[in-house]
Amino acid sequence: MNKPQLHILVCASFRSGGDMQGVCHKKGSADLLPYLENEIVDRELDAVVTSTGCLKACDHGPVMVIHPQNQWYARITAEEMIDEILDAVEDGQVAARYLIEETKNV
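Below the sequence we write its predicted structure tokens.
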């Protein structure tokens, strides 16, 4: 496997026992994964998506993180939001209105 340029993390609020619970899960973060995966393929982005355990940013959930840029996005609940974020990524920009400003405190 070649190392992808982007790694997109989506909080699914998994707990150590494997159960999905918490803010991100309750607000439907896992439901957006198929759309996100399809958009990455359609846009031919060199990226991989991973659903994660709790990212400890519940006040901002659902949370999506793009690495290596270390961009933390908040309250991602709609396909249109994903489109805006991926458009920004493709343009080398940041979708500032969804960005969590203080990522060091997350």
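The radius of gyration is 13 Å.
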